Amino acid sequence: MTNTAKILNFGRGNFAGQERNVADLDDGYARLSNMLIEAYSGADLTKRQFKVLLAILRKTYGWNKPMDRITDSQLSEITKLPVKRCNEAKLELVRMNIIKQQGGMFGPNKNISEWCIPQNEGSSPKMRDIPQNEGKSPKTRDKTSLKLGDCYPSKQGDTKDTITKEKRKDYSSENSGESSDQPENDLSVVKPDAAIQSGSKWGTAEDLTAAEWMFDMVKTIAPSARKPNFAGWANDIRLMRERDGRNHRDMCVLFRWACQDNFWSGNVLSPAKLRDKWTQLEINRNKQQAGVTAGKPKLDLTNTDWIYGVDL
Q1: How far apart are CA 60 and CA 132, in angstroms?
Q2: Which GO terms describe its biological process (predicted)?
Q3: CB under 8 Å to 21, separation ≥6 — which residues?
Q4: Count: domains in the chain
Q5: Which of 55, 101, 178, 195 can bridge 78 by disulfide, Cβ–Cβ 3.0-4.6 Å?
Q6: Angle between helices 47-60 and 72-79 (to 10 degrees)
């Protein structure tokens, strides 16, 4: 009789062909301080806001950058949320100062004392007493944005809530008295295509890029020019595009000409003024260009071709 043993395999099944999805630091990582992690954990954010926050952390700290240009479509790809919902949550985070915005750049705000969000129990009364969700909740899928209180307003002036109850006009540049679009409402509709928005004033990423280019042009003739409200500038550019039928290239070309012209350089310092004076600027530029290109022809005094055919 042979002494044999039958081996039964109760081990793991056959996982051949199955993809292993294991996180590895070699694939990249985001450096995040323990203080920020604890602050995020204690923040009473909605699920949507938290997902968008993590996506922004991934697109910034994940690339060792404090800020970066992050589109709503990029956030949507990471969070698996609709683009519109990503835009709403992003703007809410900006208003709460959890996320900083500089033009079209976004990034985490490490200065926790500037945050303006509700906290879990145990937080200071100053933070707990902040009114939240006075507007419609995102869960209702209403088209209006939230009113998030007035404390710690964003440096960019991102929402109407940061403006005092007194009617105060927010000038878009050194050309005082300029304004655009309709008056802002307390609850402004969040625009899904907006790369920047302040109340009812907004613009796409291309509008914002054109606005930033124009300000760089202004600084060439006025180095001390103060930073404008880019939401207002982008809004004026959007209006020129949508209502006047202009394109970004024509706007920038005419604006550059105005900045270099001896007379107009001191009078056109913003997109709003460009829009207001467009017809005059175009006429003057065309006249100037015609005067240069249509000068008198040079006379060749040695040419005697004119004499042919003349009977002497």
Answers
A1: 28
A2: DNA replication
A3: none
A4: 2
A5: 55
A6: 110
Segment 187-196 mean pLDDT: 77
3-class secondary structure, 62: helix
Give the residue numbers spanning the domain of 285.
200-292
Task: Classify 176 as helix, strand or coil.
Answer: coil
Quote the pLDDT of residue 281.
Answer: 92
148 inside domain: yes
Residues 49-101 have pLDDT tens digits of 999 999 999 889 888 888 889 888 889 999 999 989 999 999 989 988 899 99
On the CB side of 168, how many CA atoms lie within 13 Å of its CA?
A: 9
100 and 221 share a domain? no
Collapsed DSSP state (helix, strand, coil) of residue 161: helix
86-90's contacts with Cβ under 8 Å and 24+ in sequence apart are 86/52, 86/55, 87/190, 87/191, 87/192, 87/194, 88/48, 88/138, 88/145, 88/190, 89/46, 89/48, 89/49, 89/51, 89/52, 89/138, 90/52, 90/56
pLDDT tens, position by position, 153-185: 333 444 334 334 343 334 344 443 444 444 444
Residue 173 falls inside a structural domain: no
**Residues 122 and 220 both lie in one domain:** no
Decide: pTM greater than 0.90.
no
What CATH number did the domain enclosing 37 receive? 1.10.10.10
Q: What single letter denotes the amino acid at residue 114?
A: E
Average pLDDT over residues 256-260: 91
146 and 205 together in one domain: no
Q: Are 158 and 147 in contact (CB under 8 A)?
A: no
Domain assignment of residue 25, yes or no: no
Q: For residue 234, which of 203, 274, 193, 275 has the smallest C-alpha distance? A: 203
pLDDT at 162: 38
Are 147 and 232 in a shared domain? no
Whether 155 and 212 share a structural domain: no
Residue 3 has pLDDT above 70, yes or no: no
Apex 40 CA angle, 44 and 202, nearest 5: 75
